[in-house]
Write a structure and sequence with these properties.
- The chain is an all-beta fold.
- It has a single domain (22-151), classed as Porin.
- The chain has strands spanning 3-4, 17-18, 22-41, 44-56, 59-71, 77-86, 92-103, 109-118, 131-138, 143-151.
- An 8-stranded antiparallel beta barrel has the order 3-4-5-6-7-8-9-10. The chain has a two-stranded antiparallel sheet with strand order 1-2.
- It starts with a strand and ends with a strand.
Amino acid sequence: MANREFPEQHPGECIREVGSMIGDQIGESKGRRTARRVLSTDPPTAEVSFEDKGTLLGVATTGMGSYTSVVAPDGSLHGTGQGMEMTADGDTATWTGHGVGKFGPEGAVSYRGMLFFRSASPKFARINNGCAAFEYDVDAAGNTTSKLWEWK
């Protein structure tokens, strides 16, 4: 969806379209947190691992990943992670990512950020050396959901 600049903010100029950098949704998955461990208490830092199943560019995938989160003094979370998606035929796409998050009720967490992809597979050529905006949520029971949008 394009945004419009208002003429009253720019007298004498025409309205111009400003395009969105977020493209099509290219993936989603559901899974489970599989492990957590504390790496440090100063600052509070934890490592989390997960496994999931979903789709990437319309291709069924099984994935796994891990991320490290640091709790900032204001309670926000800053994370970095890495992982891979695999197809039934053995094609893979790997990713690294960065995000910011917050705690929710009863230990739930929610992150928003960017993933950076690499793949030699023709199935994932569209995202090779590309990136995607993500939403990643973990409920209090450890169930994960994620959605990805192409970044243009």
